[in-house]
């Protein structure tokens, strides 16, 4: 009876498809995880294990996810999954930031479009619309996050707008109120005239802005240096709109100043007001002032140290303006300021205590009152002479912001003979990171947390020293911010948020510090939410014995950074999520959060608990396009995570994250994603080959390592190296280096080397051959390891491969832990030996490529080369079947120097190959070319194959 030779070859067999079809597969796996209750089962499995708590920095609930969100949440998920597979209880509770201006702004836009005034809407109704808006986007974002494969307590997330959260935020505020560190003070703050509220440093970003500049002379009225009387002290400013608020001029005590008489101004606009007029400027800046003002020459009349100017009094340059009406009839003293430099300007700084921090402190130190000049909407108060009602900031038709009052200020200065020059300058300027509008400094009464009263600064700096930062430079970044930051401004003049739950005693002006009052507020918020502050009578909070008429109830809202800074208190503490622990093991956000969430959480926790709410902080960079440019719709370079997931799959995005060095800015685009697809395909093909090769494999087939050939034991050694590297990567929260090694292991060590060599044994050896059993045993170990190692990274594909190997109604690789790789598998000496063997093999395969290119052979199995090898390399290959390793039908190994015509590689000494064809016929089963083919019981096959066929 003839035998079907082809049917006796053990070809790989698997239902695991070559083409992934991730966009279709992934939703099915998500539905399966939901059906089997995977997250709940993971929590059950974590009972009693060490806790790992990655506290989620809340994204804002106001729009679709962008690629930065995808990076952040995937990285969090990877870390949670790795920690879980290390044997920890990694309970992850996602959350959302819900209060604040962006949502409020959207609701206001709706009213503006309808021609309605938001301020005429009942505040509770307005707040409910904000709340509904946030809920809508939470639902949308939740599904988008889940689609990325991010596992978590999605059915029970946290939000900052629940009753419990708002009550906790109020309780935390009460702590800083009761310990005396909360106070109301008038200080200069960053003010958004567009949003009509104060902003904190964390809400400010810097962009280039074009400002009008002016050089203005302040006439000297009196001075200990009598020769200065009548001269003009020249200042330079980039904010002409602050001139109505001027109350002093600052000089540097050690700066050299000169009294000069400028001459030779251009006469095309008529006689210049400063022609021949004595003026005082810093000597180092004189030539620059001459250039800026455009006068031909000058005469130096005197030289002074700044200290010589003490006691000099000027008048405001607008005092004699026809429309001044006495509005500028005050004196303007010259005051020493340690912040004055000769870097730019004139060496004199005009001081408007209401519009600058240095100005404010210098004015306060010299008992100068802070005038009210600019209203919350950015227009001058009616009391401001000449400019009442005019706007200090407006948006032009081109969308850029400018100061419309700059020109009237210039004209007014000209009318008074006070303008030396004007110009334009482009400089870095603070903007709101929400509205993108420029900000102004404005001194207003606000609520602050002192950095000094309870040593908050010192506590925060000590906490930073006790925190692990990844990368390490994050410590210096946040540390320098804490060292220099002013008191924390908590108040916002808006409606949507947690109110500042404070009553002010009208008689003393001091906040009421009463724990019982705060307890009643917290209790009210727990039952009714923070709307209770607006709907309840003050008696509900003040209690018996206090007359509400004696107190002013504060209706400012809290800085949303205080909200998010309190999340540790209502998420990690208490019993709502008992699987979590305080302090968090890790906070993880973008590097901008050193000034944001990391910062506010640190201050809040140090103020109320004396330490940071986290043990470690990890920061990642921003996402740029392939050319390193910021993404924008106008450039057409925006990569949407929804598009990538819908066309290529979430696992591709996940591989991009773990394959990137996220300690720096990341890049993404079509070519980069194409690279990730190629990497994914190689990983998938590795899994598919392993699954196919393991068809029918059972425990009875397994071999112990000590029964295996060296090649298999070398693979096991490589697993120990990968296992050790993974543990380091998990501890460092840095995966890209290890993932590159894993990919190379699959593509080079396995596919291009081990699989290639063992393919013959797998397909053609007898089922009970030691070599085949050893290979299949190692394949089983490698597949198990790869599925588990890939599970945190390519979570969908790892699950698909796991279920292909372990079919189950409710099983999951995500219920497993990382493989237990025995330390005894490590064999550095064997690894060193096989490194030498692979060098020799590389010379042989190089020679075969030359033969193939010359078309002298087609397959390497048509070759039977002569291998010449010397020294240590000869010792390394002793006893090895080099024909098997090089996949030839035979090989003659000669220890000694190769002849001159032998093929060599320049980087490998002592190895040469002389090519020659293999004699004999081709085995129809294994395709080797051997003399023995045709001399077996079965025609057309070799002796090994004949034995396999015979069984």
TrEMBL record:
It is found in: Cytoplasm. The keyword Transport does not apply. Coiled coil: none annotated. Residues 712-863 form the Methionyl/Valyl/Leucyl/Isoleucyl-tRNA synthetase anticodon-binding domain. InterPro entries: aa-tRNA-synth_I_CS (IPR001412), aa-tRNA-synth_Ia (IPR002300), Anticodon_Ile_BEm (IPR033708), Ile-tRNA-ligase (IPR002301), Ile-tRNA-ligase_type1 (IPR023585), Ile-tRNA_ligase (IPR050081), M/V/L/I-tRNA-synth_anticd-bd (IPR013155), Rossmann-like_a/b/a_fold (IPR014729). Its main location: cytoplasm. ATP binds at residue 633. Binds 1 zinc ion per subunit. Its EC number is 6.1.1.5. Keywords: Aminoacyl-tRNA synthetase, ATP-binding, Cytoplasm, Ligase, Metal-binding, Nucleotide-binding, Protein biosynthesis, Zinc. Its cofactor is Zn(2+). A motif ('HIGH' region) lies at residues 59-69. GO terms for molecular function: aminoacyl-tRNA deacylase activity; ATP binding; isoleucine-tRNA ligase activity; tRNA binding; zinc ion binding. L-isoleucyl-5'-AMP binds at residue 589. Residues 920-947 form the Zinc finger FPG/IleRS-type domain. GO terms for cellular component: cytosol. GO terms for biological process: isoleucyl-tRNA aminoacylation. SUPFAM superfamilies: Anticodon-binding domain of a subclass of class I aminoacyl-tRNA synthetases (SSF47323), Nucleotidylyl transferase (SSF52374), ValRS/IleRS/LeuRS editing domain (SSF50677). Zn(2+) binds at residues 923, 926, 942, 945. A motif ('KMSKS' region) lies at residues 630-634. Monomer. IleRS has two distinct active sites: one for aminoacylation and one for editing. The misactivated valine is translocated from the active site to the editing site, which sterically excludes the correctly activated isoleucine. The single editing site contains two valyl binding pockets, one specific for each substrate (Val-AMP or Val-tRNA(Ile)). Catalyzes the attachment of isoleucine to tRNA(Ile). As IleRS can inadvertently accommodate and process structurally similar amino acids such as valine, to avoid such errors it has two additional distinct tRNA(Ile)-dependent editing activities. One activity is designated as 'pretransfer' editing and involves the hydrolysis of activated Val-AMP. The other activity is designated 'posttransfer' editing and involves deacylation of mischarged Val-tRNA(Ile). HAMAP family: Ile_tRNA_synth_type1. This is Isoleucine--tRNA ligase. It comes from Magnetospirillum moscoviense.
